[in-house]
Amino acid sequence: MMPSLQHLLYLAAFLFCTGLAVVMVKRNTIMMLLGIELMLNASNLNLVAFNRLYPASLDGQMFALFVIIVAVCEAAVGLAIVLRVYQHYQTSVPDEISELKG
Amino acid sequence: MNTLTFIFYFFMLTAAASATGILLSRNVFKAALMLLVCLLSIAALYVLSFAEFVAITQILVYAGGVLVVIIFGIMLTSKLSGKPLQVGHTNIFAAVLSGILLFALLANFITDDVFAVPQHAVETQGALQTIGTNFMTAYSLPFEIAGILLLAALIGAAAITSFMKSKKV
Amino acid sequence: MQQYLLSGLLFTPLVAAFIALFLPSHASGTFKLVTLITCVIQVVLLLLMLSVYDSTGGLQFVEQHAWITLDLGSWGILKAEYLVGLDGLSLPLVSLTVGVMLITTLSSWTVEKNVKGYFILLLILNTAIIGTFAALDFLLFYLFFEFMLLPMFFLIGIWGGARREYASVKFFLYTLLGSILILVALIALYISVNDPSVPGRLVHSFNLLHMRDPKNFISNAILDPNNPWMIGPLSARYWAFLLLFIGFAIKLPMVPLHTWLPDAHVEAPTPVSVVLAALLLKIGGYGLLRIAYPIFPEAALYFSWLVALLGVISIVYGALTAMASKDLKRLIAYSSVSHMGFVLLGIASLTIEGVTGAVYQMVSHGIISAMLFLLAGVLYDRTHDRVIDNYSGLAAKMPVFFAAVLVAFFASMGLPGFSGFIAEVMVFLGAFKSGSANGLLHESFAIIATLGLVLGAAYYLWALQRMFFGPFHVKGDAAAIALTDLNNREYSMLVPLAIAALIFGIFPQPLISWINPFAQHFSDAVLTLGKSLTPIH
Amino acid sequence: MTALSFHTDPTLLLCIFAALLLPLLSFGASVLTPRQYSWLVSFNAPLLLLVSAICAAVALTSRWNDDPALFQITWFTVGDQPLSANILLTNTSLLMLVVVSVISFLVHLYSTGYMAGDNDLKKYFAMLGFFTFSMQGIVLADNLLILFVFWELVGFSSYMLIGHWTEKLAAGQASKKAFILNRIGDAGFLVGLMIVWANTGTLGITELLSSGSTYQWQTAASLCIFCGVIGKSAQFPLFSWLPDAMEGPTPVSALIHAATMVAAGVYLLVRIHPLFTPMALTVVAVTGMATAIIGSLAALFQYDIKRILAYSTMSQLGLMVMAIGIGIVNAALLHLFTHAFFKACLFLSAGSVIHALHRAQLRAHHHFDVQDIRNLGGLRQNLPVTFLTFLLGGASLAGIPFFSGFLSKEAILAAVWSTDSSVLSWSLLVAMVSVSFITVLYTFRMIWYIFMGEARKPLPVAPVEPPVIMRMPVVLLALCSLWLVVSWNPFDFIGWLLPEAYYTHVAWVTAFSVVWIAAALGVSYFVFRTARFDSNAILENAFYVDAAGSKVLGKIVQISATTASHIDRKWIDGLIHGSAYAHITIAHITGWVDRTLVDGFVNGVAYLSKGIGAFTRSFQAGKIQVYIFWAILAIIIFLIWTLK
Description:
Chain B: It is a multi-pass membrane protein. With 169 residues, chain B is mainly α. Chain B is built from 6 helices and no strands.
């Protein structure tokens, strides 16, 4: 007997919330990126898990693949920005980069 | 409890534990390593959920690509600053509050519904083939766009970092 | 021609403000000149109007145009009109406004900071005040009423003294609270009143004249007199009266809703204090007489004791607090509170004497308080110090100023020969007579109010004694040198006011002959209508 | 002012209006005179007053013993009830008009000398004119409201005149006290007006008194109006301003005491006494009695000349009010007239003394308080004319036969005697007799100390008589203190001024008075001679019993006098001060309430909104993570709200 779908969903929810907490807690931009990755993976897990409900179509997995692609892009550009910002402000603490504040 | 179930729970716990580790860790590098563990366990869970192709992509792209880039970034910033990458925490209360609240909410929804997985044998042999077909037929436009996005991201990332260099020089 | 006079009077300052908007801001003299010319034009227009005004003729110079007409289908028609007119209540107040605005313009001659903005605001204020007194449509009234608040806020907040922000915000909050209460009553009235002039359709009108007739209320609407609904212990009409009463009482100002006044006065520049005391306070009394009382007569009768009680409390409390004031402007401000209490007492009595006295007091206080604040300004201009105890023996150094202060103080404490005496005596006679004539007020109200006379004498004379008697001494040598007697510009402001106070005190008949028909009609209408509407509580 | 209806000929009307308005003209002219020509007013003002007095006299002679006449003038109309400004012409009002204008003229004349060199002559003469105008308004008015108008104006003028020397702090305090105490009485007066108006709808005096019948409200109304009298005429609880008012220039005191201010109250009582119910009259009588006693006792122990005179005025006013209280209006009026002349004479003489000594001091550069009788003495040689006028006035005040004061007091005494015997009337009689006794005492003491004996603080330069312009009015007034002013017969008060009285002149009462006054004179001679000069010798020599008696009497008188003075100074003044402090305390308390509670509430609201503002502003702190938090929180709330 396979563990029920619920367990996967619980895990995904947990991972998402943890990722969210990481994004909110860490005073470092790269750590925030890590949190975002965690959240993306949680949603991917959800997509794959729900795909089991409809085994005939593989839409869930397809979506998961696209998410991975987007995650890659995000990580690449995000890191580039982080480096650039770091070089400019000599910090990667997001609170201190508040020049866009109205 | 059979072996499969054990492995399943093992990877679930590993993923959860490593995620928690990321949250608690104050060292960026260790956190990145724990993310690696987490991603690999999730890949294992994908396999167990009959999504081998996603699992492979996960390992290749995430573990092999993204994380390497991240670690590279970490190294670069720590090299620039010359300080150990210790990270402070803020908004602990807000984060814990919203995390627990959101989790409670989601768990509530998940518990409320019964997700009946069809019990008949899942056709796994054709999965890879179906995915390939899907990419070329139903999802051809998103596929193309994703390709362009990747290209754009690559060029963009290169451009942003190269500005840095040119300015630095 | 004649019917457009009032609109001319009303919009001349607005047109002038518009013109001033396009003048270059560095030519500060032009703005003073434009405002002065506007005021002179207004005086001419007013004189034209006075020459054709018939004191027995009720509403005159009425002008009525459609303004907003919205067909809301089954909800009826929303109809707001441009409806203005003058009667024995508003004409004296409009005349007062025109006169005081002229004086204010002269008194603003010394303004140096952002002259353009100042005079444009002053002109807008001018229109707004006259509009408030002239409007006979509630929405139009409310528009002008709110329109007045904004220039005032900026005039205090920008050109004021040290604590001007605090004062202007306090002023704004208080008056805004009043406006909101009035707005609630306005909406309730709008829902409840039907315009009978369009038969067959439901027309929600803001016409104040229609609101006075109980027949125009839609049956079972919230403010219908026959509506049995109760909100708490009182019916909706009583609540609506209370809302309007509090809203206008804040403007008046009435104890305990008066604390904005001393602060606003202390911080406001002299001309703005003059406008505030002489004109803005009158809008409270005017609103009670024009709106709250005629529309809700039965509630007015029911609450008359409350209105009178608060009036008496204002009189006594204001006087006591004035006595404790160390700041000259504060003292005058509290004396305003005390004097405006007479307006409440007079209105509450609903006798001809009382109502005439109340309106007379509004005009008289307008003149006298303008004089008082100008004099406080004279001193402040010279030394930038208004603390009474910092002066001593000024009589020897500034004899003409002393004489002017004597005139103003004695006029304010109701010395016969000045307008305040006529007003206060009428209020006293009316308030006392009310007990036997219509049974609304107990005689003790009037008797306790006489304390105001004694206390008034006490605080003014005490201030006089501290500031003017004894050997000459002023805090600071620079201040002592700066103390020079009145100059010609100050004469030109003070003398007309003093003469006006004297004329209205010695020959009250012309003004009373304007007010009297109104007072008669007002008290009769409120009494008969109020008694005919059966109380439901 | 419209609708004049003439009851009499225009000439008379012209005279009346001239008499009334010329002082006002004097006021206006003085105000408008340029400062550099201010010497003009001291010519101009007495001249106008002279014309005014002549006009009043012409009016009096042409209307003497005619029927009362009423000029009807409507001031303004409230509703349909007109408020009239009628002028009533009777023997009383015309006589009073003459007295006021004549005395005012004399005071003006005197002032030109007394106030010469004052640097605010303009204000002084302006206010003198205004004072006279106000008083004449009271005299002529036939409407309670008009009367009240002038009544208040009198208060205002007295404020200005008492506080004429603004650099003197005490002058400011005294003038303030005078006005406020008057205002307290006036508030009562106003309540009386309200009662009358509410019950009758008219304030016309003639109209009011013509109804004849008595109503319940009249007691309250008349007592309230009497409050005004108490303030203005310095009766029992509200008299302390009168002695303090001596801070003003001396001619002003003469005017206040003789003709204008304090007389106004008595005159008002005379005018409206039919309104008074028996109960109210009893109150009036008792108040008058108390005032008379307190005033006379206080006068006995003053050292300041002007204060002695002030207290004597108070006690004489008490007598007048008492007489009205028992319903004998004519006697009170008679005393008012005689008092006007002899008190004006006394004050102006006192002014002459002060003036002469001041000038002597200025030349000698030697300064002491010239108003203190302990510093004076022996002035009869240096100031013979002043001594004579002082003596004449004093004799009239003391009620010595052949002087007007004797006759008018006699009238009151006879009136008191002829009332029904009751406890009240008996006590009034006793009070009357003792007050007249004490009057003799203090008058004697004052004159003795000032003029007799040797100079106690001799000046190197001898004081000389003031100029003729000052002596002339005083002499004139002194002559008016003789019995001839009242009647031809020096022992019968029924004469040309008081042609008829409904009580008779009792011969043995007159005899008693003569004896009584003589006794008083004797007693005072012994009391003050012995108390002041070589007391032991006389005590030891002949009059052991007499001396003991006089000592005991003196002690009793002294104690009661100091008590009265103490009551005056400590209790009544203290009450006034206390109430003033209480006012200030309450004022501070209300101020505190105002600042703390009422303002506090408003500030609280402001703080609350500010706090909310700061709280909501923290959402926009420019911190990504906080933004995320709020976004998530919003999503959570949204989820809970939609899905539950």
